[in-house]
From TrEMBL:
Record's protein name: RidA family protein
Pfam family name, one: YjgF_endoribonc
Organism encoding this protein: Kangsaoukella pontilimi
Domain Endoribonuclease L-PSP/chorismate mutase-like: 7-143
SUPFAM superfamilies noted in UniProt: YjgF-like
InterPro entries xref list: Endoribo_LPSP/chorism_mut-like, RutC-like_sf
């Protein structure tokens, strides 16, 4: 990891977790050319516990955004693993797809996924700016609140 990213994480009171292991029959990331496709990262707390809940039913937008921030850290952890621990190779975040466990009438999915987007821009500057989709899901694996997958360009 670069000293710049380390200091920005520290300024936020965060540390990069170990790259989470897959929960089923898939790989956490695949590199093709200069792109790394990272499988969906589910919302977990700093101790690895699941952040569960349904937006619009007892879970606030702020809680959902905090869960999405945790997904951002897992995404970066996977890119860190894919680059052999050299995040200086990360050129930019290309695309995120965020899934929000929410009720049918909940419409603030973009505000929830902003938790991830905002953190990536805070940590990476312009290289963190990306295209994005934010969609609702009737349920997510293990009852988690948020799952986010990403595409990253490396050098």
């Amino acid at each position: 990891m670069t000293p710049e990213i380390s200091s920005r994480l520290e300024a936020h009171g965060l540390t990069l977790p170990d790259a989470p292991a897959p929960q089923a029959n898939y790989v956490p990331w695949v590199q093709t050319g200069a792109l790394i496709f990272v499988s969906g990262q589910i919302s977990t707390d700093a101790d690895g516990g699941l952040i569960t809940g349904k937006l619009g039913d007892g879970m606030s937008v702020e809680d959902g955004a905090a869960a999405a921030r945790r997904c951002a850290l897992s995404l970066l952890a996977q890119v860190n693993a894919a680059t052999g621990g050299d995040l200086s190779r990360l050129k930019r975040v290309v695309k995120l797809t965020g899934f929000v466990n929410s009720t049918p009438d909940f419409t603030d999915q973009p505000k929830v996924i902003n938790g991830c987007s905002d953190l990536l821009v805070d940590l990476l500057g312009d290289a963190g700016r990306h295209t994005r989709s934010a969609v609702s899901a009737a349920s997510l694996p293990l009852g988690v609140a948020v799952e986010i997958e990403g595409i990253f360009e490396i050098i």
